[in-house]
Write a structure and sequence with these properties.
Blueprint (H helix, E strand, L loop, with lengths): L2 E5 L5 H12 L5 E6 L5 H6 L2 E7 L7 H8 L5 E8 L5 H12 L7 E9 L4 H13 L4 H14 L5 H14 L1
Parallel strand pairs: 1-2, 1-3, 3-4, 4-5
């Protein structure tokens, strides 16, 4: 089986997952590995399977990744990504479902994996400013700050092991 690994990473979280995907798969059959927009379209078009990694942008992937996914008619896709929010399966399933909408009907999803990823410090600072400026929002901002702090440790070794297991299950 020929495959490519293409990812979109803003802070390095999804890049770490993409490297873990590469480590979990044999080099034989790998046509390309790299960032969306930098990987040549020819290996993507030639691949039987595309491992597509994304960071969550307002509950979905970026437009650039959506465009790549839309080009995968008749191929298999394994979707993986990171989310700053939500450390539960229901949230992750919702994100995966929104991303999957970008695939043509003839594409087949062979697996998905999502986990939390750390966010830039500016996000926490914004929550702190909002809590201070609007005391009525302070309880919600405290929840968001707790989530931010929890996400600092992700993706971690457990996340990478679960990703490797999901890759194994898809093969």
């Amino acid at each position: 089986m020929d495959y490519v690994i293409v990812y979109d990473s803003r802070t390095g979280n999804t890049e770490a997952l993409a490297r873990a995907v590469a480590a979990a798969l044999p080099e034989e059959g790998r046509l390309a590995f790299g960032r969306v927009g930098e990987v040549d379209a020819r290996p993507v078009a030639a691949a039987d399977r595309v491992y597509a990694g994304f960071w969550t942008n307002r509950g979905d992937c970026t437009d650039e990744m959506a465009e790549l996914l839309a080009s995968l008619a008749g191929r298999e896709a394994f979707l993986f990504g990171t989310c700053g929010f939500g450390a539960d399966a229901t949230y992750f399933a919702g994100v995966a479902a929104r991303v999957a909408v970008h695939l043509p009907e003839s594409a087949r999803i062979v697996g998905t994996f999502l986990c939390q990823g750390r966010m830039p410090a500016s996000v926490r600072e914004r929550y702190e400013r909002q809590a201070e400026a609007n005391p009525a929002q302070a309880p919600r901002m405290r929840q968001l700050i707790e989530n931010f702090d929890e996400a600092l440790d992700h993706p971690n070794d457990d996340d990478l092991a679960r990703l490797a297991a999901a890759i194994e299950e898809a093969n």
